[in-house]
Amino acid sequence: MNCFEEYRMKLCTADEAVQLVKSGDWVDYSSNNGFPVSLDAALAKRRDELHNVKVRGNLLPGPIAVAECDESLEHFVYNSWHCSAYERRLCDKGRAFFTPMVFRNLGWYYKNYLTVDVAMVSVSPMDRHGYFSLSCAVGVSRDIIEKAKTVILEVNEAMPRIHGGEREWVHISEVDKVVEAGYRPLWEMLSPPPSETDLAIARHIFPHIVDGATIQLGIGGMPNALGELIAGSELKDLGMHTELCSDGYLAMFKAGKLTNRRKSLHPGKGVLGLAIGSKELYDWVDDNPGIAGFPLSYVNSPETIAKNENMISINGCLNVDLYGQVNSESSGSRQISGTGGQLDYVLGASQAKGGKSFLCMSSTYTDKGGQRHSRILPGFAGDIVTTPRSQCHYIVTEYGAVNLAGMNTWQRADRLISIAHPDFREELIKKAEEQRIWLPSNKR
Fold first, then answer.
1. Is 350 exposed, middle or buried (0-12, 13-18, 19+ CB in 10 A)?
2. DSSP string, 30-59
3. Is 168 a catalytic residue?
4. Is the dihedral of CA 342, 348, 351, 353 positive or negative?
5. Which of 87, 168, 243, 398 is catalytic?
6. At a CB cut-off of 8 Å and minimum separation 6, what does 414 contact?
7. What is the pLDDT of residues 239-287, one digit of tens each?
């Protein structure tokens, strides 16, 4: 039997495919555009005949039909590894639950500790050899598929075919059912235009980037601002090694700055685990031999990251306390996003030859009541610590960039207060004195 005959034998409708799910099963949906929209809708239609089906996913755009159809949580319980804005709202309503993790360990969790009864993953169309690309969710899908007892693929003709370094595909022989979704436009996650604060933060990071550096960017206005600065700069031959490929890299590529030629690891290849952005980004990564997708167990391994000389890691955070603890995922106990790969890149970039890690934030934020608050705090009171103080490297606001590596408590307080908003510095100094982490000789 050739691969096309096997494909036709396994082809069915979404309603037929989800009959393989039983009460009590664990069902996995993968990540971002790997979300199997048709299968999710078909599974939700079986609500009344199923009980206690647990579903996992992460960074899904929504709506997730199994979460929306069952307010009682008696039939379906949705769990997220890393919250998108939509998943955060589900958690706020008590309609979903967060699972703590770091992305490099995701494959380890599945291999050693988790049950996957049914994997449902959206993929690109099959090639002539019988392979489907895991596409935008290459970083997480393979580990799920390898653990699953049953594998159902939803084929979306819009999914880009991302070349791989390893384990970027699934073969028809590994699949139980195939559902064709036709051409369904992909979720586009567009970052807002950079603000003046974003640009100011980017300017503090820019001097640390050298020709030939390999860059990891998070999502948001500040990475976009940095991309703009790089695009208009004299920098050359930059590389990409990133958990998440977004439009910031496309901007650098279009300006001729992103060549990957001088990378010490995988020269000539931009390495990614996930891809989320604009349609133009998806067109760029599609069938591009200069892009290589790997599982996040490899991409986000600190040992792997550290092999990139002059590795520059740039991520956002929500607040930092005077001890150097960093929160990037919660407001108090309310889950905002997740740890994701931040800690992976803080560790890996810091260990690389010439490497540096930057965690960035505006110095203040304004609440719904119009009151302004400092993002640099005396200490945390219930916020989740994403990056521990023992691993923190550079912290950046619009007022500067400070290095906390190897610094004692009074040095940390001094440096962090120096990049706090001026209106809050005296108050923070008083708190530092009360906490006995301030010297009279520190700058005021």
1. buried
2. EEGGG--HHHHHHHHTTGGG--SEEEEEES
3. no
4. negative
5. 243
6. 438, 439, 442, 443
7. 999 999 999 899 999 999 999 999 999 999 999 999 999 999 999 999 9
